[in-house]
Design a protein that fits this description.
359 residues; alpha+beta; 2 domains; eight-stranded mixed beta sheet; three-stranded antiparallel beta sheet; 9 helices; 45% helix; methylation
């Protein structure tokens, strides 16, 4: 079952030596990649050592059980602990998404429902911001188009993590948030007190660590400049500072207008463009691998409905995992961990099942 473990133990020892070399840290990108892999393998090594130690303890207790009642009493306890340690190790050996350790750019866009959808988009942004605060992550608004009544027609936010461990990476925990989030509540504009349904789309992009990671030919870019506008469409700038970049090979379009200078908007647009291209390439890889496609519950598609937020009943339901709770108020205040963990566990189980089908 754990045939590949020795190779991972050897890799962990090799990485430990490399990371002790000051020359490695002269290249921050290389040091970051090696650090992530080392942190990932460290979890596996710790779990393996615990499992191996419990095997030895169980063998010793079983040998002494016939002569000593105390050892006999330990045997069932050690068997249970060994089973738990084995399951932990099995899950850690599931191949990880290569982007798990990355930071993210999360995009929230008001969908059906007009002003109410924009207000809900603002609520989702606040939820992710608070969740990031709970985990000690940093957030940065990259671009935002506000609606007339508040909220956002669309908004992009970067979230930066604080751990080298891919299991604790921002993308590892937020990649399942992509899709349509539906809200049921009485809008502020509703005078009759009727419950309306509206929606917002969420897209989660792994952020590129270094620009060199994603090759972009400048000849493949169509760049347009124009004057930025406010919520009502009025011009808020007398110069052509807004930038729209189209990546011709993929058709990906990114527009930025929040910064005061054309150069700043261009840099922000390229930052988002690189992340979208990285995600686009990963989607192609996933699509070519049927097992990955079957096992992953994350989506890059804003059209897939994933969750419903019902305000009158204070209820939240995830339609993929079956998660349901009546604590919507606390979830919207950033207590998102139980919802995220349900998605992670479902994805891990699907991957384990896929591995089992192959064997």
């Amino acid at each position: 079952m754990f045939e590949s473990i020795q190779g991972l133990l050897d890799e962990h020892a090799e990485l430990q030596l490399r990371l002790s070399d000051p020359a490695v840290h002269a290249d921050q990108g290389l040091a970051r990649r090696l650090g992530r892999r080392y942190a990932e393998l460290s979890r596996i090594v710790d779990a393996y050592n615990k499992w191996h130690a419990l095997e030895d303890d169980l063998a010793a207790a079983s040998e002494m059980a016939a002569e000593d009642p105390e050892f006999a009493a330990e045997v069932p306890v050690l068997k249970e602990q060994l089973d738990e340690a084995q399951e932990t190790l099995r899950r850690l050996l599931i191949p990880r998404d290569p982007n798990d350790g990355r930071d993210v750019i999360i995009e929230v866009k008001g969908g059906e429902g007009g002003d109410e959808a924009a207000l809900f988009a603002g609520d989702l942004l606040r939820m992710y911001t608070r969740y990031a605060e709970h985990r000690g992550w940093r957030t940065e608004i990259i671009s935002a188009t506000e609606s007339d009544l508040g909220g956002y027609k669309d908004v992009s936010m970067a979230i930066k993590g604080n751990s080298n461990d891919p299991a604790e990476g921002v993308y590892a925990r937020l990649k399942y948030e992509g899709g349509v989030h539906r809200v049921q509540r009485v809008p502020v504009t509703e005078s009759q007190g009727r419950i309306h349904t509206s929606a917002a789309g969420v897209l989660v992009l792994p952020e590129v660590d270094e620009p060199e990671e994603v090759e972009i030919n400048q000849n493949d870019l169509k760049i347009d400049v124009y004057r930025s506008s406010g919520p009502g469409g009025q011009s808020v700038n007398t110069t052509d500072s807004a930038v729209r970049i189209t990546h011709l090979p993929t058709g990906i379009v990114v527009a930025m207008q929040n910064e005061k200078s054309q150069l700043q908007n261009r840099e922000a647009a390229m930052r988002v463009l690189r992340s979208r291209i990285l995600a686009h390439e990963q989607e192609k890889i996933d699509a070519a691998n049927s097992d990955i496609r079957k096992s992953q519950i994350r989506t890059m598609d804003r059209s897939e409905r994933i969750r419903t937020y019902n305000y009158p009943e204070n209820r939240i339901v995830d339609h993929r995992t079956g998660y349901k709770a009546y604590n919507l108020d606390t979830v919207l205040n950033g207590e998102l961990e139980a919802v995220v963990q349900a998605a992670i566990e479902m994805d891990e189980q699907a991957r384990l099942d896929a591995i089992g089908d192959e064997n």
